Amino acid sequence: MSHNTFNTFTDLNTLGEFGLIDALTKDHPSVKNTTLKSVGDDAAIIKNEGEVTVVSTDMLVEGIHFDLMYTPLKHLGYKSVVVNLSDIFAMNAEPSQITVSIAVSSKYSLEAIEELYDGIYTACKMYKVDLVGGDTTSSPKGLIISVTAIGQASAEDIVYRNGAKKGDIICVTGDLGASYLGLQILEREKQVYLAHPGVQPELEKNQYLIERQLKPEAQAGAIAYFRKNKVRPTAMIDISDGLASEVLHICKQSGTGAFIEEGKVPIHPDTERTAIEFKLDPITCALHGGEDYELLFTIDEKDLDKIRFMPEVYIIGEITDAADGVKLHTTGGNVHDITAQGWNHFTE
Amino acid sequence: MSHNTFNTFTDLNTLGEFGLIDALTKDHPSVKNTTLKSVGDDAAIIKNEGEVTVVSTDMLVEGIHFDLMYTPLKHLGYKSVVVNLSDIFAMNAEPSQITVSIAVSSKYSLEAIEELYDGIYTACKMYKVDLVGGDTTSSPKGLIISVTAIGQASAEDIVYRNGAKKGDIICVTGDLGASYLGLQILEREKQVYLAHPGVQPELEKNQYLIERQLKPEAQAGAIAYFRKNKVRPTAMIDISDGLASEVLHICKQSGTGAFIEEGKVPIHPDTERTAIEFKLDPITCALHGGEDYELLFTIDEKDLDKIRFMPEVYIIGEITDAADGVKLHTTGGNVHDITAQGWNHFTE
Q1: Which residues in chain A have Cβ-Cβ distances shorter than 8 Å to B82?
Q2: In this complex, do A64 and B139 lie within 8 Å of one another by their Cβ atoms?
Q3: What is the pLDDT of residues A239-287, one digit of tens each?
Q4: What CATH number is attached to the domain comprising A70?
Q5: Model ipTM?
Q6: Chain B residues with CB inside 8 Å of A241's CB?
Q7: Total domain count for chain B?
Q8: CATH assignment of the domain containing A173
Q9: What chain A residue is nearest to B17 in terms of C-alpha separation?
Q10: Which residues are within 8 A (CB) of B82 and not within 5 positions of it... i.e. 6 or more apart?
Q11: Are residues B237 and B331 in the same domain?
Q12: What mean pLDDT comes out for the span B193-216?
């Protein structure tokens, strides 16, 4: 019994912390042979493969990062894992283990937490990673999830944000802006529901956008393709904050400029249609919406042939000299600065 | 600008997430040559040394694990790191990197967060680990801290909880129960203060106990001693939940019993005195208090000579057959079962 302390969990059906961890992690044997010790000791033990360990972590807070009114707990669990795996892929590495810590208020039942873990384990299975540790505790209010993802790689495979150079081709692995519009739809339907609780939400026709928001995927396929075809991007980053912010990160860290061709940026037809419905410019949603979890990467010109046949890849621009700035070439023939701020910067 | 999303931080002096991370991590260059990439990319990159990576994580929640009325933020930062490093040492490994994620409500100023990070970096310096990543976000209420500690080790050095065998000697690295009584004093002075805000708290004479609660240390010295003297414990665990709980973990996982000699359990004179003041049995505080962050370990009989000259070590019992149970031999000559529950189990 710890009265104080760093390990209490009394509110949830009096299971206690050990009972809860047992209930959540049983029936999930490790799938990675690098997982030497999983849950159940002071720390997890992972066998080193390759020369480096890759580590990334994110914290998700109820009321800030997610709204349980329209986020099913299973999707939330899935997404919390995926957004972390995405960071490991963005280093051109493969994730192998995760730890998950949650703090949860007494309003949650064991069944609700099991739903969350169901999503977490679904993501583990999909991406072949082991859940090897974590912490469960109570919170005075709401749900907080902290996930740490770990991968192992060869040192020469690692791709940083800072390796882009003039003449490199800028690519992206999938369409952008959909997740942001999915969120706008969910927010709109929530407001409708709050005003008229009897009205059923109109979600079917927006399934693609909503799925991009609630159940994003990480780009495991792209990393596998790079490995198989012996191509190494010169710089890479995952798109969590929007294309503009990520291009600026690469240019700042690489000491370069860049231009993006507006007409080349992949935007899904549903994104186009819904952006207009919300009186937004689709390219603005792609540039500033975020949460797409696609990879933005640059490759040397000479590698262009190697990526032409990637199942999903879009060439959207080119790296330039720092003095040329970071620019958007619009379909109308204009040139704008790309900035991290101004949401409505490009709308008239 | 991320409206949605997984990376907002707008409440704290409009610094934004990147401004905050910059403000917090600048002037802290890495000290480990295994830190190949720290804060500033999608993930941290750590050079592998030895065959395994050791990972542990904890989440601390305001109002559950700490009370800011008597916990200085600098101490809180220090302790959040130390409790995680303690888990790495408990595997007989040395920590080398940590990640720190915080969620913080708008009532906190940048200066308050800097105070917290001052404590975090003080612990990093003391234990020679690098802060290599993390996440900063807002919370609707209070402060949440999630720390992940990482170490690298040789596979043959790792010590689990499950290696104890009959005849092994049970040892502990320092005195127990002090942290729990430190907390009782802080709670009592808080109640006095709330009833009579003018009264100054009586903390000086209880400095040792309060320091054990607010600023615990991890047992780096013990691990260094093991390495230097070529002794490998057969099982080890850190004492976060109290001696009783930890002995039971070792016995359960090792498939053994054990006895602990009450008279051999190290208890500080201040702990003795204050326990009696609170009408508690000192051995009860040692068994069930927790948060001591000493190491409990077992060694083969033949290694006894190797640890006799450890700067701080106490031999408190012996591993027995599982059938013999887990027992306390009291100074009065009685034998009690050691259980994880009953706080007042041993008091008359």
Answers
A1: none
A2: yes
A3: 999 999 999 999 999 999 999 999 999 999 999 999 999 999 999 999 9
A4: 3.30.1330.10
A5: 0.90
A6: 2, 5, 7
A7: 2
A8: 3.90.650.10
A9: A241
A10: B123, B127, B216, B217, B218, B293
A11: yes
A12: 87
